[in-house]
Amino acid sequence: MRKFYKSGAIYLILLALIGGVVFAAFSPKGSVTKPVDFGSIVKMIQQGEVKEISVHGDRVTATLKDGNKVFALKEPEIDIVKLLKEFGIKPDQMPPITVTEPTLWEKIAPWVDILLPILLFAGLFYFILRQAQGPTNQAFSFGKSRARMIAGDRPSVTFDDVAGEDEAKEELQEVVEFLREPQKFLALGARIPKGVLMVGPPGTGKTLMAKAVAGEAGVPFFSISGSEFVEMFVGVGASRVRDLFDQAKKHAPSIIFIDEIDAVGRHRGAGLGGSHDEREQTLNQILVEMDGFETDTSVIVIAATNRPDILDPALLRPGRFDRRVVLDRPDIKGREAILKVHVRGKPLAPDVDLSVLAKSTPGFVGADLENLVNEAAILAARRGKKQIGMEEFTEAIERVIAGPERKSRLISEKEKKIIAYHEAGHALVMRATPYSDPVHKITIVSRGMALGYTMPLPEEDRVLESRERLKDELAGLLGGRAAEEIVFGEAEITTGAANDLERVTKIAREMVTRYGMSEKLGPLTFGRKEEMVFLGKELAEHRNYSEEVARAIDLEVRKLVSESYRRAKYILTKYRDRLDLVAKKLMEKETITREEFESLVGDIELVSSDAIP
Ligand code: ADP
Ligand code: MG
Ligand code: ZN
Predict the structure, then answer these.
(1) In which band, very low, low, confident or very high, does the pLDDT at 119 lie, cut at 50, 70 and 90?
(2) Which of 358, 461, 607, 612 suits a disulfide with 335, CB 3.0-4.6 Å?
(3) Nearest CA owner, ligand 1 atom 21
């Protein structure tokens, strides 16, 4: 509602202005003397009292011999000499006369007093009308001004300006090709992605990447941020979305970029009451627009978020944001590449070693690194240097770290080691259990992000889950915690495993209560789950069993979890040497690929769930 205050201030200013003008227009002009009639000037001339006459437009001023001045008005077109003659002034009586032309401003000045209030009132009226009509009208102007087209319609950023992130670029290449030549794809009846969800922590280059897609394809880029919708009048968000899409379709092929989509795209109904109306309407409108795309609409919607976990599932359905591109925090190599991009065209001293800088900036994202280079340049300039030296860079690192919101991103050596063992633990247990998905990639840099951090596994839905597979999953999830305990001891166990444990509990519970996988309780389901949309997801679970059964369930869940934990520890103890190898490599490189992992682990014997002593 901040807008209301703003408009209130405008009202006040307008009123004050109008008041002032009206007052000025109607107040007597105190100091200005009144004109005399022309006859009296003529009389003064005849009596020889006038020293000189000056004419300015319609104003005839007579300067008297005693120094006083009087003035009279005449028709501006009439010649003064002729006029005086007509009034009977003889040539020898004629005082010296000077005539000056009035300026343009002086010509319109008399009108200003009248016109200004009218203009102001008209303005005020327009303003009030706009406010009253609110939504539609604001949206009307939005299409033109708010959905800004980036300079010259097309961003000049290309993939070359985005360092690293090769996987993301590869995935987006298809979008680029489609936008370049939509006809080619459409002729073949290819179904083109409509929506791409760009996921990654702040500063990892989501906006940059979206612009680069537009730049690569040479298409216009329309962008809006989800957070802009939040403080709007009801109904405005939806019509803005409509306008944005209209504009984009008019300029197709084109890209619509919705930044911070989580601001409007949270689970709908995740709160009671009407306060989320606006958000919901906006979200609905986005969905309606996307569903309404014709098959030949060559507009691609890219949305960015760092909270994919809270998005409304409706957004992720096929035909909407069904593509997901993850931008991870950069690892050492990635950081070096980003630094390279940002030092382009800057004079560096010979002692600058970007790989060393990359090593000493764990946890930094692209935005931090850009900031780092900039700070270093500023330091060098202040010191009157012609080149940026390593000294400046090192100091700049400290500055960036000290920046208020960056502190939490810094990872100490000790933490790095714990994280490395934790992730190595997951990976190794997964590798050593028969039904686990293969490990694709292990990284210790993207911790703290809600999704896909350590080992993006194939996320395909399995129709049938086998008990053994679920048990393997439990062990894999517990592998992180188990590794921490084995290497650092009980006392050192960190909070890093909280998310793992949550998932473990959920899976184990479902195994017992939904899939009937517990021997003791048998093949029964317990509890009836209702998705109460308006209370938030899965908040309401109806219990249809007794206290006693509840206790039995708890026991079974616990048993499953503790068995899995023991299995994870067993595997990690058995292959402790590999655990150390993988963790060490992780500390060194921060990210390791599947191939590297496999070659570190080598051939190992799988450990099935019944092999635990
Ligand atoms: P996000 O939208 O994910 O918060 P931005 O795209 O706004 O991040 O990135 C902020 C800035 O950080 C960019 O303008 C760019 O200068 C820099 N940056 C981020 N990632 C990269 C990258 N991979 N390569 C080069 N620069 C990057
Ligand atoms: Mg951004
Ligand atoms: Zn973990």
Answers:
(1) confident
(2) 358
(3) 366
What is the pLDDT, as a whole number, of residue 565?
A: 95
- Ligand 1 atom nearest the C-alpha of 306 is 3
- Of 283, 270, 302, whose CA–CA distance to 229 is shortest? 283
Q: Does the pLDDT of residue 416 top 70, yes or no?
A: yes
Least confident interval from 245-249, 295-299, 396-400, 450-454: 450-454
Segment holding 53, helix H or strand E? strand 50-56
Q: Is the CB of 366 under 6 A from ligand 1?
A: yes
Q: Which residues surround ligand 3, an ion (CB under 5 A)?
A: 480, 500
Residue 337 beta carbon below 6 angstroms from any ligand 1 atom:
no
For residue 483, give the ligand nearest its CA: 3
Closest ligand to 503 CA?
3
8 A C-beta contact, residue 204 and residue 327: yes
Burial (Cβ within 10 Å: 0-12, 13-18, ≥19) of residue 491: exposed
Is 208 near ligand 1, meaning CB less than 6 Å away? yes
User: From the CB of residue 443, how many other CB atoms can be counted at a distance below 10 Å?
Assistant: 23
Residue 308 Cα distances to 180, 316, 325, 532, angstroms? 29, 10, 11, 21
Confirm or reject: Cβ of 590 under 6 Å from ligand 1: no
| Ligand number with the minimum distance to the CA of 455 | 3
Output 115 or 512, whichever has higher pLDDT: 512
Pick the closest to residue 188 from 296, 274, 65 (CA basis): 296
Q: How far is the CA of 240 from the centre of ligand 1 (A)?
A: 27
Closest-lying ligand 1 atom to the alpha carbon of residue 327: 3
The rounded Å distance from CA 198 to ligand 3 centre is: 23
Atom 5 in ligand 1: residue holding the nearest Cα: 205
C-beta of 450 in contact with ligand 1 (< 6 A): no
Identify whether the C-beta of residue 326 lies closer than 8 Å to the C-beta of residue 451.
yes
* Residues 587/541, Cβ–Cβ less than 8 Å: no
Weakest-pLDDT range from 15-24, 383-392, 426-435: 15-24
pTM above 0.85, yes or no: no
> On the CB side of 545, how many CA atoms lie within 13 Å of its CA?
15
In tens, the pLDDT along 129-158 reads 665 554 444 434 443 444 444 333 678 899
* Amino acid identity at 128: I
Question: Taking the CA atoms of the chain, what radius of gyration do you get in angstroms?
Answer: 38
Active site members: 423
Q: What is the spatial distance between Cα 222 and Cα 249, in angstroms, rounded to a whole number?
A: 11
- Asked if the model's pLDDT at residue 519 lies above 50, the reply is yes
Region 280-307: what's the mean pLDDT? 86
All domains in the chain, ordered by first residue: 2-105 (3.30.720.210), 148-326 (3.40.50.300), 332-402 (1.10.8.60), 413-601 (1.20.58.760)
- Cβ(591) to ligand 1 under 6 A? no
Question: Which of 69-83, 139-153, 308-322, 359-373 has the lowest average pLDDT?
Answer: 139-153
Q: Which residue has the higher pLDDT, 519 or 162?
A: 162
Query: Rounded to the nearest 5°, which phi and psi values hold at 604?
Result: -130, 160
pLDDT at residue 579 greater than cutoff 50:
yes
**Beta carbons within 10 angstroms of residue 494's beta carbon:** 14
Q: How far apart are CA 560 and CA 289, in angstroms?
A: 47
